[in-house]
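User: Here's a structure from my thesis project, written as structure tokens. My advisor, Dr. K., wants to see whether a designed sequence matches the one we expressed. Can you design one independently, without my sequence as a hint?
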């Protein structure tokens, strides 16, 4: 099943091959459903069996429901396709089948994840290995021909770079996610962002709990590491609430983004560069409209260069070019269909093309592998993608110029929605659970004096402080500069707020980040905020806000002659202070080494640009001055490693590679050395 799915989804197949492959995949689904029904029939207690295998029951129930509706002549998928006003029914149907099969495979992976507890490795090693596995899987998928809009697909290093950036929720990319990847490739990137944001082990553990499979101690230890839980016993309960809250926030964020798209915003669909014009029929130059033409394989208007035209032609949506066979399934193999058009367009080669309702002629500023597609389905897709990318602080965008795209950069209400989603993602999962958990909220309503935990208070207060500090700083530094000078006060403040919020975590930008824009002081401030990063246990990177605060508090305590660090009427444990100093020390040393290597591998690049790029990669932010696509192969490797280490953490990597001391029951004599 896995091989067939990869072949069908990733290979560049002809229509006959696609039809044949998906016939086998449909047979695999039927066999899976039949096997489940046999197990259910022979179960001792059938009701208990359904409860114990709830997820499988839902999958099989969905299959039976679709089979029944098709038998009654109600083609569910095709009706959904028409409602969403999508352009390609075959692609839609294949995506549904592929998603269904991925769900089955994911269920199998969840079951096998129970063997994690049997592995004789420490949780830190398992944690970092899970990201390596996710990155390699993503690399393999992105290298497949169907994932790219260019002939031959994406090369290994670029695929590895993109997969690492998505899995480590960074956002840097040497090729455009908007135009160089097909919709299939974009969906792979979206899954990598979601799995990388919370962690593949976290998802496996959550679904194992949901499926009543049980969770081992080692899995709980990994989750404690991922979510920065205070103790092992709370990790499992925290995970359940975090996953649910994540999906709720992303769902509500998608709705909010969808409702706030500016009317001037254009949405796009990637298309293959090698696509050639479709010849519908040859007519005499004196032909007029209302002719009947024959279409093969598509209802898109294809003009010169394989691009859609917009000359008023209308295609009847009720007669889609994809043939609907028995059971509401698409057929293939070059079958033709007659479509009546209201208008036709004649090309220079005397070829007639039909215009599509949902597409417009490509702008001269657009890459040749993008076309405008303002359909309802595409708007929903854009909303979901950007909501997940914002909450996971990934910074990937489907617009060619990111959120600096024309129409988007002036949608200030949309910017505030993004700020809110990004902030939720940067607070940390423990803080989100502490703030929004229904149980916690009921407790605080009953006992108003009960406060958030110290970790939550630090996360919230530091996030607000750094966001406001960055907003004021950016506004004061750029008010009379190109970034803000053409905006009124409110627009300038919202832009400054957005840049401050996204700088520490997400990597979106609504202002140009060339070498001369913003100013040098703003660059230094942005680098500082990127290095600090988000809260612990969040999807953001950096040294973390709590680490920065503990460094300041420890320095103040040392100046005041205190032997302990007190914060929020609590004494901070000495090992936590040591851990904070270790994180910063490792981060500074690592970035210094990387800067040294980048200076060698990129001798002609300005040092400030290299410094900005390196900190952005290490802090998993994703902001760039525009040099990412011009990096040498050696520089790409440095940035890839930086994104990975920034996501798993320097200290976590050090713990995984080091050998723990078995006993420290002895003490050496105390000595003093000169420092400072």
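Assistant: Designed independently from the structure alone:
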């Amino acid at each position: 099943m896995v091989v067939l799915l990869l072949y069908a989804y990733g290979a560049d197949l002809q229509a006959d091959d696609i039809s044949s492959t998906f016939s086998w995949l449909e047979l695999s689904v039927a066999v899976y459903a039949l096997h489940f029904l046999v197990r259910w029939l022979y179960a001792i207690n059938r009701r208990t069996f359904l409860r114990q295998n709830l997820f499988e029951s839902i999958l099989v129930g969905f299959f039976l429901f679709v089979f029944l509706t098709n038998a009654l002549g109600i083609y569910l998928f095709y009706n959904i396709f028409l409602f969403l006003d999508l352009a390609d029914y075959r692609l839609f149907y294949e995506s549904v089948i592929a998603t269904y099969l991925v769900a089955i495979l994911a269920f199998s992976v969840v079951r096998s994840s129970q063997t994690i507890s049997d592995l004789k490795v420490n949780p830190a090693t398992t944690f970092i290995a899970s990201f390596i596995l996710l990155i390699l899987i993503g690399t393999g998928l992105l290298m497949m021909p169907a994932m790219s809009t260019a002939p031959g697909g994406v090369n290994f290093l670029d695929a590895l770079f993109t997969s690492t950036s998505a899995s480590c929720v960074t956002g840097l990319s040497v090729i455009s996610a908007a135009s160089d990847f097909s919709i299939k490739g974009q969906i792979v990137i979206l899954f990598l962002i979601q799995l990388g944001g919370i962690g593949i082990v976290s998802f496996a553990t959550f679904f194992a709990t949901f499926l009543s499979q049980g969770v081992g101690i080692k899995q709980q230890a990994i989750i404690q590491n991922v979510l920065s839980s205070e103790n092992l016993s709370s990790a499992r309960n925290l995970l359940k609430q975090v996953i649910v809250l994540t999906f709720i926030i992303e769902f509500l964020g998608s709705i909010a983004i969808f409702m706030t798209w500016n009317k001037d915003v254009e949405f796009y669909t990637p298309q293959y560069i090698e696509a050639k014009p479709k010849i519908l029929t040859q007519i005499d130059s004196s032909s007029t409209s209302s002719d009947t033409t024959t279409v093969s394989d598509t209802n898109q208007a294809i003009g010169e260069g394989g691009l859609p035209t917009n000359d008023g032609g209308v295609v009847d949506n009720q007669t889609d070019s994809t043939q609907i066979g028995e059971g509401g399934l698409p057929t293939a193999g070059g079958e033709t269909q007659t479509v009546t058009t209201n208008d036709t367009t004649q090309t220079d080669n005397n070829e007639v093309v039909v215009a599509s309702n949902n597409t417009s002629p490509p702008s001269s500023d657009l890459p040749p592998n993008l076309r405008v597609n303002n359909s309802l389905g595409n708007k929903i897709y854009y909303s979901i993608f950007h909501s997940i990318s914002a909450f996971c602080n990934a910074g990937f965008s489907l617009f060619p110029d990111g959120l600096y795209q024309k129409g988007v950069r002036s949608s200030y209400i949309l910017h505030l929605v993004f700020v809110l989603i990004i902030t939720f993602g940067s607070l940390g999962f423990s803080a989100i659970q502490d703030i929004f958990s229904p149980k916690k909220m009921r407790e605080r309503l009953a006992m108003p004096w009960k406060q958030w935990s110290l970790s939550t208070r630090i996360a919230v207060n530091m996030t607000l402080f750094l966001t406001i500090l960055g907003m004021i700083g950016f506004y004061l530094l750029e008010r009379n500069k190109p970034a803000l000078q053409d905006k009124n006060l409110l627009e300038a403040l919202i832009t400054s707020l957005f840049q401050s919020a996204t700088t520490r975590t997400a990597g979106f930008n609504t202002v140009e980040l060339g070498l001369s824009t913003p100013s040098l002081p703003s660059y230094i401030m942005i680098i500082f905020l990127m290095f600090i990063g988000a809260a612990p246990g969040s999807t953001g990177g950096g040294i973390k806000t709590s680490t920065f605060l503990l460094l300041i508090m420890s320095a103040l305590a040392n100046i005041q002659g205190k032997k302990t660090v007190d914060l929020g009427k609590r004494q901070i444990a000495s090992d936590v202070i040591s851990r904070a100093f270790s994180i910063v020390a490792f981060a500074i040393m690592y970035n210094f080494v990387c800067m040294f290597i980048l200076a060698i591998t990129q001798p002609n690049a300005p040092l400030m640009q290299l410094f900005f790029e390196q900190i952005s990669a290490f802090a998993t932010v994703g902001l760039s001055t525009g040099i990412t696509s011009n990096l040498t192969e050696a520089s790409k490797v440095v940035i890839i490693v930086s994104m990975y280490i920034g996501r798993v953490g320097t200290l976590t990597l050090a713990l995984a590679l080091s050998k723990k001391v078995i006993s420290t029951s002895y003490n050496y004599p105390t000595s003093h050395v000169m420092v400072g």
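When you compare it with your expressed construct, this may help: The CA atoms of residues 124 and 225 lie 8 Å apart.
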